[in-house]
Hints:
By secondary structure, this protein is an alpha+beta fold. The chain has three domains: 36-90, 3-methyladenine DNA Glycosylase II, Chain A, domain 3 (Orthogonal Bundle), CATH 1.10.15; 99-192, Alpha-Beta Plaits, CATH 3.30.70; 193-261, 2-Layer Sandwich (Alpha-Beta Plaits). Helix content is 34%, strand content 10%. It is built from ten helices and six strands; from the N terminus they run ααααβααββαβααββα. The strands form three sheets. A two-stranded antiparallel sheet has the order 1-4. Strands 2-3 form a two-stranded antiparallel ribbon. α2 crosses α3 (57-66) and α2 (36-43) runs antiparallel to α4 (79-90). The protein is extended and about 85 Å long.
Amino acid sequence: MDPVLTAALVLGGVGLVCALLLVVAAKYMAVPVDERFPKIRECLPGANCGGCGYAGCDGYANALVDGSEEKINKCVAGGAAVMEALAKATGKEAEAVEPKVAYVHCLGTCDKTEKKAEYNGTKTCKASKLLFGGEGSCTFGCLGYGDCAAVCPEKAINVINGVAHVNGARCIGCGQCASVCPQKIISLIPAQAAVKVTCSNKDKGPVVMKKCKAGCIGCGLCMRNCPAEAIKVEGNLASIDYEKCIGCGKCKEVCPKKCIL
């Protein structure tokens, strides 16, 4: 028999066997998909921004389907329209969507901190961080090259005096800036948040004071004086629980470093 024909027959036979195996595997090893998933997933915008707290729209849809998530108002990017669509798809009662905006937890501007080196590489935060954590003396602060601004669909972020700032009036709370920030110092907070912690440094107080004039020293005065117990100091850094915060401003009054606004 012709060698070429033999090779073709062998390859064809192998291909046929593999195809049959794939058909059998698809039939008997298929993972059943809840019929509600496509309907719920269709309601979501597909931004995969993570603003809902899940790893993309598929994650949020799966959580709603399996019952591990009850709230249908977590799609900040989609707003009221998505929430109403989810209410119809899930049979749940529509809820108010709490608007959120991105906030950069850093006030380490050029006049409050110093450089430890001069960076001459690719002008991105991601690249800068690879070189000893960035050129700034504080390795927790904003790197200032605007990776967040580059991905913002609403052009709501500007780098001013070495630190990124978010225009809350333009921010839609999609969370793309928070996802791309290599320092992880951007978070989504309620648009009406009365107070904000402006630092992300987790070093001990004496170390922070050497690196930045606006850094949190973890003294705990804010936590001890909060009447609503809405502030915790963990890892030498204060954070606010906005579900408890009553906006009294007591924390701002007692903060010795003025890093709570």
